[in-house]
Fold this protein.
Amino acid sequence: MEMVAQRAGVSKITVSRALRGSALVRPELREKIAEAAKQAGYRMNVAARTLRTRRSHTIAVVVEQLSRGDRPIADPLLLSIIGGLLEALTPLGYALILTTQAHFLTSNAMGADGIVAIGEGEGGAGLREMVGFDLPLIAWGEPILGLDIKVIGSDNRQGGKVAAEHLVAAGRRRLLFLGDAEHPEVAARLEGVREVLAASEAVLAGVLPCPFTIEGGAAALAGALDMSLAFDAVVAASDFIAAGACDALVARGVTVPREVAIVGFDDTPIAAAHRPPLSSIRQDGLGAGQALGRAIVALIENTPGLALKPLPVELVVRASSS
């Protein structure tokens, strides 16, 4: 440790604090010390540290995975969030456990020091179970009535507003919303759409729930056509839903965007790769993961002044709505 301190130009106590991820050490200094430790070949005795601090220095990342698999674990946004978590947690000295089974975390001796929940489920069912573990917990998504937990999420309401404003400005007057509003994030996006329509001459042609999949979007859109719903634009709760809706329209001989414009959500690679390319509301998955990682460590270490703000979103316009 003395060699690491000399290389980094700091005291041994600062090295000790940095290598155990203490918030008392500035992030840039922690990175400098971590690099010095790597160059010196220093390896922390994790077992001794665990006994001393009563911590495992692991964070459990629990992905809400419903039995019907309506949100694939290989979703590009999810993978980006996990990547951001790794970027934030590694320099702070924390490892990551990825699971879809929250109760598994209580069955091993050391357990996890905290939980990051990604995916709230319908009505926050998954989060309600995790609250009972009595561990520091932060969730990705939207605040849920009746659950007093820390939440970081994109500004979903603003995302819905921006999508609707874009379509209304383009002359669209009957907007169809595709997505399951039982999910808090989707409900917020729908609220944003409704807010714009209430102040315009456009109307909501319908709200059709569907899974976060291409097949779900296609089936919902086909159902709208079978019901003879009149609409000239679609706001989809995800890019997968938007892609399926677009495919269903084309299969029925409806031109996109001339007859029906489409805006998705997330701006995942499928949006740009689709034909026609899909307009989408971009979420910063990497930034989200980094924010979640910093926040869960702050909760574990009881760092004061933790401020959580919605992450900004932006509209990416492509051929499906222009």
